[in-house]
Amino acid sequence: MAKKIPLRQCVGCGEMKGKKEMMRVLRTAENDICLDVTGKKNGRGAYVCRSRECLERARKNKGLERSFKMSIPGEVYDRLEKEFDNLEAE
Questions:
Q1: Is the whole model's pTM more than 0.70, yes or no?
Q2: CA 8 to CA 32: how far, in whole Å?
Q3: Residue 11 burial (C-beta neighbours within 10 Å; 0-12, 13-18, 19+)
Q4: What pLDDT shows up at residue 87?
């Protein structure tokens, strides 16, 4: 029997995709928001497609705010976008 691929919904575009194709955004116990590259860190996770547009869409439609049930300041999104750009440059 084929192994089931865990699907996650992008908070930007709402598409369901495999966990491996997506970027995990993490809220830690200290309410810090960061990118979880390994996908294994402890905390509440939300998933975004690996595209800049989806991150920007999540910012517009407050997808991360809904996932984490908290307000997220603009500088957090700016930092996520920088981390995103660094990953794409690798």
A1: yes
A2: 21
A3: buried
A4: 75
Token pair for residue 23? Answer: 């970027």
Domains and CATH numbers, the chain: 7-89 (3.30.1230.10)
Collapsing DSSP to helix, strand or coil, 6 comes out as: coil
Q: How far apart are CA 10 and CA 17, in angstroms?
A: 8
DSSP per position, 67-85 = HHTS---HHHHHHHHHHHH
Over residues 37-54, mean pLDDT: 90
Q: Which of 79, 52, 63 is nearest to 8 (CA)?
A: 63
- Owner of token pair 């809904």: 66
Amino acid at 9: Q
Cβ distance 8 to 19 under 8 Å? yes
DSSP E strands, the chain = 7-9, 16-18, 22-27, 33-36, 44-49
